[in-house]
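batch_manifest entry 22 of 60
target: RDD family protein
source organism: Micromonospora mirobrigensis
requested by: lab member K.T.
priority: normal
notes from requester: please return tokens only, no post-processing; we will run our own comparison against the previous entry in this batch. if the run fails, retry once and flag.
--- input ---
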Amino acid sequence: MSVQPGWYIDPADRDTRRYWDGEGWIGAPIPADATPPAGPPPPEPTPPSASAPPAGGTTAPGPPAAPGRPGQPPHPPGYAPQPGPGPWPGPGQPGPRPHGPGQPGPGPQGWGPPPQGWGPPLPGQPYPPWAGRPPEPRPHGLPLASFGARLVARLIDLGIVFLLNALVNGWFVWQYVQEISPLLREAARRVDAGDRSTEPLPPPGQRTDGLLVVILLIAVALWIAYEVPSMASRGQSFGKRVMNVRAVPVEADQPLGVGRALRRWSTLGLPTLLWFCCGFGLLLQLVDALSPLFDHPLRQALHDKRAQTVVVQVPRGTPQPTPQDRTDPPGDTP
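--- output ---
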């Protein structure tokens, strides 16, 4: 399994970070605590040709370069080569000369191909896995938000939406309760009296279904008005600002834009309209809310995958992003 390209801690120097392009290290290292660039480093200048000797003298031939990219190890960080069967030269004896895979080179008898694990893998063979747990991604140089912080932020937002519904939707909820109260009172009376009568319960009022649809539509509209504009301009609702987390596009640290924010919300919010179907919509929302626990390595919820966003932890004291006046900033891609 090959390691995905990205900035990782250099196993040879834990105080630096380098870019791994899937085959080898490229570019100059940067400090481990520095924010890496969004992509690979710029190419290094080509060194002068080593074939021309300096003026006034000659250079002694050096050992052959290791296979792979010039000056770079051929394997991912943390990979330790495993020596294969011998015999191999002892101290003071010359090493094996270069030769092709599977072909014995000129030298003492018994010198065969290099031991397993030396050099890049042969065609068709996978690269060795990471030694230990791979480093956690840091989108745009920021750590991923924990599930606990995301959950608390979502509960804060749902509490605010509930208060808005109590103010705007309260009258419709009261009318709905009045319509179903005869059914509830009769059911409670039978339970208290131990009545096992098979007579049907009184039906709810004729306006019950209509009131339920109106209540759900108002609830969805209030949720959209509360969350989508703030997420589009800043990537943060009130709950996310309290918990210092922010949603950003996967490809760039930019505002989400209206289109992306609406796609992100709809995956979680539209199932509210299915609450009247035996709570099926609530079940879908619960699955969406728990999905970051099972997604690796970016901890994306289903609504994050729909909008191609990630939720990152913002350090305290970081200035809030400036709201965008445009409805489709550069981060809002289809």
